[in-house]
UniProtKB/TrEMBL annotation, chain A:
Domain ABC transmembrane type-1: start-end pairs: 346-555
InterPro entries assigned: MetI-like, MetI-like_sf, Phosphate_PstA
Keywords: Cell membrane, Membrane, Transmembrane, Transmembrane helix, Transport
Origin species: Halobacterium salinarum (Halobacterium halobium)
Membrane topology: Multi-pass membrane protein
A GO cellular component entry from the record: plasma membrane
Protein name per the record: Phosphate transport system permease protein PstA
Entry's transmembrane regions: 25-46, 58-79, 91-111, 117-138, 145-163, 210-230, 239-260, 266-286, 293-318, 350-371, 391-409, 415-435, 467-487, 536-558
PROSITE patterns: ABC_TM1 (PS50928)
Compartments, record wording: Cell membrane
A biological process from GO: phosphate ion transmembrane transport
UniProtKB/TrEMBL annotation, chain B:
Family per similarity comment: Belongs to the binding-protein-dependent transport system permease family. CysTW subfamily.
Residue intervals passing through the bilayer: 26-45, 52-73, 85-110, 131-155, 167-190, 211-232, 285-307
Subcellular location: Cell membrane; Membrane
Biological-process GO terms, alphabetical: phosphate ion transport
Ranges of residues in domain ABC transmembrane type-1: 91-308
Lineage, uppermost ranks: Archaea, Methanobacteriati, Methanobacteriota, Stenosarchaea group, Halobacteria
Gene Ontology molecular function: phosphate transmembrane transporter activity
One protein family per Pfam: BPD_transp_1
Entry membrane topology: Multi-pass membrane protein
An annotated GO cellular component: plasma membrane
InterPro entries: MetI-like, MetI-like_sf, Phosphate_PstC
Name of the protein: Phosphate transport system permease protein
Keyword field: Cell membrane, Membrane, Phosphate transport, Transmembrane, Transmembrane helix, Transport
Entry function: Part of the binding-protein-dependent transport system for phosphate; probably responsible for the translocation of the substrate across the membrane.
Amino acid sequence: MAADTSDVTAGFGQVSRTAGRVFRALLLAATLFGIVFVTILLLYVANDAIQPLTADPGWHLTFFLTLVVPTAGVGAFVYRRSQAAFQTGMLALGFVAVALLFSGGAAMLFIDIVRPLTWLAVVVALAVPAAIAVGVTAYDQRLPFLARFGVTTAAFYLSLFGLPGPLGTVASWLSQLGLPIPLGATLGSVRLVPSVVDVVSGVPVAPAPWLMLVATVGGPIGVVAGHAVARDRGRRARVAASSAFLAVVAVAGVVGPAVGVTPVPAVVVAAVGVVPPAAYAADVAVNAPRERVGLAVPATVIVGSLVGAGIVSVVGLAGPQSWVDWAFLTSAHSTNAESAGFYPSIGGSILLMLSVAVLAFPVGVGAAIYLEEYAPDNWLTRVIDVNISNLAGVPSVVYGLLGFGLFVTHLNRPAGTVLIGGATLGLLILPIIIISAREAIRSVPEAQRAASDGMGATKWQTVRNVVLPRSFSGILTGTILALGRAIGETAPLIMIGAPTIKFSLPTQVSETVTAMPLQVYAWSSLYATPDFYTKVVPAGVVVLVTVLLAMNSVAIVLRNKYQSHD
Amino acid sequence: MSGDDLEAALTTRTQNAPSELLSRSFFFLCAALSIVTTIGLIALLATEAAKFFTFSAPLVGVDGATAGIVEFLTGTNWDPTNGSFGVLALVSATLMVMIGSSIIALPLGLGTATYLSEYASPRLRSVLKPALEILAGIPTVVYGFFAVIYITPALGTVLPGLSKFNMLSACVVVGIMIIPMVASISEDAMSAVPDELRQAGYGMGATKLEVSTGVVVPAALSGIFSSFILALSRAIGETMAVTIAAGSTARFLNIIDPGAYTESALPMTAAMVKLVKGDVTGGGLAYRSVFAIGATLFVITLVMNIVSDVIAHRFKEEY
């Protein structure tokens, strides 16, 4: 017995650490495997698309000296002074990149899809009833809700659609189905009262397109940016800041033609791509003096790129023969790999994304609010709950079948249009939006709801004034991620019969549309020649992945910022 | 009037105010849309698939060529242009994708989840989790392209008999694609294991390795299994990567024969895309078979999702 005890005590408290270390290393390897694997593939495809090694060594040297060295130096300096400032600087840099990317998309929208006059008409048509609604409320506070609601709804409907508008179309459908509706067949085609949109877009004399865009795009963005920058400094400062931002947009329209850019894209890029990052920089500079030094990082990058580009063009050093070039981004498909472009698919993806957002966002958030705030604990709620998680697991290709069968076969709509694509993708991401919005709403502290209830607020007032503002950034994050999923989807678009090749952008929601992933699929299946595989497809993949990474990183940054503030 | 009546009268009045009723019914309609979607989906798949089968086609008023449901479900030859519709040829390819991708994704995903939940410092986690999220955000069509252009040539240097389109590289990319799903759901389950259990393990003299594998993983097993099943169902429904990478020849392969993975095959989803993309014209029997495959796919994934849900809730450890 004595010998046994000593055997036990001899090894007691001693554990080999080897097994634990090996296990830990294995787990880390497992974690990194997928990330590293995909990163390598992405580097490969970027190399194929951009071909950095075809550039003149002098080109690399120039940018190394003007861009890489100063950025590294300034970055290290800022990082050592203050990590918070460094983070702000990197955020500003990312903001510049993302804003410029999206401004390109917005410019495309106004050049080829929406006529500036139509846009102005829609803005006016929304502004008029909004003014009426505000006026009605101001006229008599005690007006019954239903009266206010009725007037507002009617004003919006009249202003946007006129009479009979879409209700007439619905009536004519129903009468085709055999329902007894007086004048049913004619209601779809006649127009009794023109809408504000028609009136404004039909005016014979209109200001120059870029001036309309300065007012309708630059105006709101300038006001929002100005208020954000000068929020603590009184009304006069806010007006001054807003006017300054508006002036930047207007100047771009004047200066643009002088440097070879037509005024419309110049105005849009200034409004969407330049003003927001500038406002962010101004906000940091004015309101966060400790982080001001961080702005040196984006400044160095921007100045370095401009100086480098200047030197390269003066000395005449050849850049890389990238397949992702201006011609690729602005031309349509071609059977010849060298001249094939991505333009119609980029525009198609933007349109699809907008229609998905318009269709799915309100419904998804509404469902989430119902399930979190209103739903009683009964069988119906549980059915909806289980049903949503099951819908999230239905393969996307089956949603494509749903879209095709429902809209094309049964409702006789033309196949592959923007509207059907948007509706199908909207149904696809609806469960994702609902699930993430529910999480965001659930994270609003119960005490705040109780406080609102305690002050006598009704349920809807609590939702509107407490729950939605507090959970908004979380909802936005989930929606952006879901929209990223939607524009990366290919299979549903194939199923609803979207054309893989289009040469122009759709200008109406009832026109057929192609999208970036669909175009990549077409190139890698229908045109599977080595030429396409090594030139065009990598270029398309790089553009698609860049857009998605930009969207996802915006969402993730937004969430991190919002979580740390809580 | 007693206090209760007063309160009821006051709250009823505010609860049934028009603005309250309107907002509540709008939110309810939004939530009810999901039920409508499901009913529409099931009704559509059922009626359209019914037009395909011999026994049900007369019921929905279709005359013309039809296919027997027994041949559909048990046949092993898929050749729509010649009228043979044996879905097992497609199912075998889909099962191969599921098996092959799970060999990659399940261990790696579980390892990732364990590392993130038990080992990683908060700082490292804050980098790795967004990286995984971005991995999950890359479109599947891009993965398909990667499989054909980079992975197949790379694998071809090791396996000389590899055909240009093959199941192996499709399995690899689908596996990589579903790692984040396994990892994030399993990690949630592991993080939910209360710290007391870990502390009890340490108190008994267990090492970190023993606590992780002997305490945390068993305690989170229901969540881990449900993540596995969800990931497998995702692999089954995955479309673009397999359409581009796996080839377009339908054949019935032995799913447990490793050699079969070097050949090309046609999974269910890829067959649907192939049919719609035009080797058959609209309205014909081959075209209607798309809905029959779709219904089969829907039933399989639905059953897997329900099983995953049941496992997650029924077998959940209560602490």
